[in-house]
Backbone:
């Protein structure tokens, strides 16, 4: 029974981490909350010369970037993507999660399990988002590189390795 409880809690934490705040900041005009508006995502989080489009440096670190565009299909399928690098997943699985913000609405767009081998990899997250659907035009993507590790109680605890808050054009 205890093992099933721990596994269930881990699944819930993982799904919450890769699909954050499905409808935060709705019609009531409230902010999307500290998970999306805090200084963590608005400050200088990334320092990677490779991911920021400059010449490559010799320092490798966990890092994340968002491409400047995303797509919205006729069936309301949203696809977002970018690049990431993580060095070590021996303490627990690492995920790339993304949240799309357009107008007064935000929704978690999928989640990708990362390969942490120190090399650059592309991430692609896709979700069908209806009610109301996203439209082509300006939007923001908030992406995180997050690792689940065993906490003191044995339950998975998220640890944030890198984050990016980027303007995108939905096509």
Residues:
């Amino acid at each position: 029974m205890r093992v099933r409880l721990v596994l269930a809690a881990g699944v819930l934490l993982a799904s919450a981490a890769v699909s954050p705040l499905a409808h935060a900041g709705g019609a009531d005009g409230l902010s999307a909350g500290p998970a999306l508006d805090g200084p963590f995502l608005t400050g200088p989080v990334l320092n990677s010369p490779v991911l920021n489009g400059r010449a490559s440096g010799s320092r490798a670190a966990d890092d994340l970037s968002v491409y400047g565009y995303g797509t919205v299909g006729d069936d309301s399928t949203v696809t977002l993507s970018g690049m990431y690098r993580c060095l070590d997943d021996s303490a627990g699985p690492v995920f790339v999660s993304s949240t799309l913000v357009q107008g007064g609405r935000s929704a978690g767009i999928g989640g990708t399990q990362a390969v942490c081998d120190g090399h650059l990899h592309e991430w692609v997250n896709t979700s069908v988002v209806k009610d109301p659907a996203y439209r082509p035009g300006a939007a923001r993507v908030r992406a995180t590189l997050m690792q689940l590790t065993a906490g003191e109680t044995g339950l998975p605890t998220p640890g944030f390795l890198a984050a990016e808050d980027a303007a995108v054009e939905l096509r």
In short: The longest strand covers residues 156-170. Residues 46 and 63 are 7 Å apart (CA to CA). The radius of gyration is 16 Å.
